[in-house]
Amino acid sequence: MSSPRSPPEGGTVLQVGATGHLGRLILSELLARGTRVRALIRPGSDAAGLPTGLEIVRGDLLDPDSLQKAVDGATTIVTSAIGYSQRRDGDSLRTDREGNRNLVDAARRANVSRFVLLSILACDQAPDVPHFWAKKETEDYLAQLGVPFVSLRPGAFLYAPPGGYGQMIRQGLERGQVLGMTPEGVRITYIAPNEVARAIALAVDDPRALGRKVDLGSDRPLSGPEYASLIGQLLGRPVGLAPMSGGRSAPTDDIQAMFRFFQTGKYVADTRQQAALFGPVPKVEDAAREMLRGLGLLPAAR
Hints:
Layout: E1 12-16, H1 21-32, E2 36-41, E3 55-58, H2 64-71, E4 74-79, H3 93-110, E5 114-118, H4 130-145, E6 149-154, E7 156-157, H5 164-174, E8 177-178, E9 190-191, H6 193-203, E10 213-216, H7 224-235, E11 240-241, H8 253-262, H9 272-278, H10 284-294
Parallel strand pairs: 1-2, 1-4, 2-3, 4-5, 5-6, 6-10, 7-9, 8-11
Helix pairs in contact: 1-6, 2-3, 3-4, 7-10
């Protein structure tokens, strides 16, 4: 088993998942800190629009042979790659399970100093939610192989990226509704993606983070009615709750299982480690404002 080491100053960070919404935020945070970044991009994925000043290598988590070139010379691996969201044709939970195992294997062969995993809040308490449990299995595999790692476990993202999901949120708000995922008295944790990206970038070289599983969230969890009330306060008009089955299509079995888990009240972050490592825990109002600004429903911050 390799002994934990801090990444050498000036080492190369391999980022996996850089073309996703969160991945681009992470990439910007790393580059702003002067980090040397190598981005693993799948064949066929469009790298247009990625910042200049990074190295791009082509590879796929489901193709183990393609990962060796990507990890060679890297001191740290950061991954936010997922398949369960089915963002691209052919995406599936194989990425979250088999793909992550392939990446961990490559990290061990390359003797990387640190593996920073984007995990999920309370994943170890949700064996019936496939994409949650896949994160827990990856954490276990990292520990089993002795790869030095940090696991960051954020709550539900408050965001409105361009495209279908953001359009769905905006259309709901035009009807005066948001999707509140729990009833009165049952709360879950929310967080803004930019706060997650900031924590990931800090976790790359903070020696205190190594070996930890860190919950990430905002200052307080919210029930569905509390979330709707907050959005209404920020918009200055009443906002109610949309039915859980709302949207253009029915949720997958995986997502339905996630909704059921939310009802247990276990999806709540303990933010004490977050505060100790990354500074003051952000307010949930700030996350909600950021989402509404992204939708063009609030003016940009000055």
